[in-house]
Amino acid sequence: MYNGIRLHPAVLLCYFLLVGVCTMLFLHPVCLAVSFLCAFLFYLFLKGRKALSLFWKGLLPLMVLTAVLNPLFNHQGITILTYFPSGNPLTLESVYYGLAAALLFGAILCWYACFSTLITSDQVVCLLGWAAPSLALLLSMALGFVPRFRHQLQQVRQARRGVGVTDKSRSVRSHVREAAGTVSVLITWALEHGMILADGMKGRGYGLKGRSRFSLYIITPRDILLLICIGLAAGGIIWGGCSGAFSAQYFPRFRWGISFRQSVFFVLYGMVCAAPLLAQLWEVKQWKRILSTS
Q1: In which domain, by residue range, is 262 found?
Q2: Are residues 84 and 20 in the same domain?
Q3: Domains identified in the chain, total number
Q4: Nearest to 226 by CA among 279, 288, 182
Q5: Of 161, 134, 119, which is closest to residue 15 (Cα–Cα)?
Q6: Is the separation of the CB atoms in 103 and 33 below 8 Å?
Q7: 95 and 141, same structural domain?
Q8: Helix and strand tally (H, E) in the chain?
Q9: Which of 28, 161, 186, 283 could lock onto 4 through a cystine, CB 3.0 to 4.6 A?
């Protein structure tokens, strides 16, 4: 679940499926805020300053855009704040729903970023290789394609600059021509790379019936214990969701609350969302203690 300890990919998949589905199903403000905060802090722990840069340059503008666009197109609610020039009302409930949608959008993106950081291509093959080998190969290629594509883009730009193909003028036409040439080279490289990889995997007998499988990931008693804990936590969260602890009403009037019974399920939900971050912090503390005593 974090970089400090190797866990089986099935444990990672079950956990991220749990928090992802719960984030999409439970639109209570407390659930959305807890999910977004835990996901962002965990991604910040994994990526450091790079996560802050991505937040300010990419995630925050998208969340603000989501929160602003919702009241412009959603006019439900009975608490009217003002009217747009078109005559449509701006309601307080649509503003609240826009904020909830922004938190939902941000939380899902952060959880996906954490998932893509921890799940590697060989783990995807380990998860899906036995049931859907073609899909596993496609997903592993897709996960590894982005960093390779970025590296190849830098090489293409340096090569074009080295042979003098790059236009020195700064006109819009030169920029478009240079971008078109670079994209053409990259598409050719991507198609050729995909064909070579597919032929290589086919030559090794990948996907054939009765083939032998090798995996570096073996389910340990610790993985089984974690899967049991995830199952118990999922059961408790489903119980809370079915009992209405995570329900909130946005239209026609915004209504939500926190009772003592609800707070128990909120604590459980927060512990589940914060589990990987707390485990990572505990691992770092243990590692520092070992270094200090050695």
Answers
A1: 9-119+258-293
A2: yes
A3: 2
A4: 279
A5: 119
A6: yes
A7: no
A8: 10, 2
A9: 283
